[in-house]
Amino acid sequence: MSAVEKAAPAVTLPEIGQPFGGGFFSGITRDPDTGKRYLNITAGAAHELKGAWGEYGVKIEGANSFTNSRANTEAMAAAGSELAQKVLVLDIGGFTGWAIPARDVQELQYRHFKPTTEENWANSRNGDNPNSEPVGQLYTEESPTQTTLSAFQEGGTEAFRDAWYWSSSQRSAYDAFPMTFGVGGQSLTGGKDSELRVRPVRSQLID
Length: 207
Known about the structure:
This protein is an alpha+beta fold and 207 residues long.
């Protein structure tokens, strides 16, 4: 059998924003430790939750990944995070395995589904995403622009709020990484006891 015959068939990827796997396709990330690629799926707006990330001043082991949303969320839940526990039991159209998005998975949500026409925060390392495919570059004031997907534009049925959203990536015992979906700021100072929104995700292995 030839090498070509042994090769696995190519995966046909959906378009950004296409309904897929209980939500909407929102991009690809690569695990920096294993090199494996994952297709990321964002839940619809009806499944957003809101709550505190966790207990302020308590560092959680296993919640530091920028790409593994599920592992982070499971660690949070085991440490007592009610928000994480609620996300883990979601069943959307028969699809389970939902999680709070890790930082670089969340960045794709903004890059592809930005709801507003406001200028981006073009400072610090906002937009830097070494684990997305293609690699995400720093935001400018003009890029990314408002999504062309009408359902995700401000006021649309699936739109993110002009508000702060939690990622599942921990920064310290006191902080985790949030992001504002009005202007794309990725802050390092989200106190874990702050009540912010969450748009769940699930991931599917590509290769």
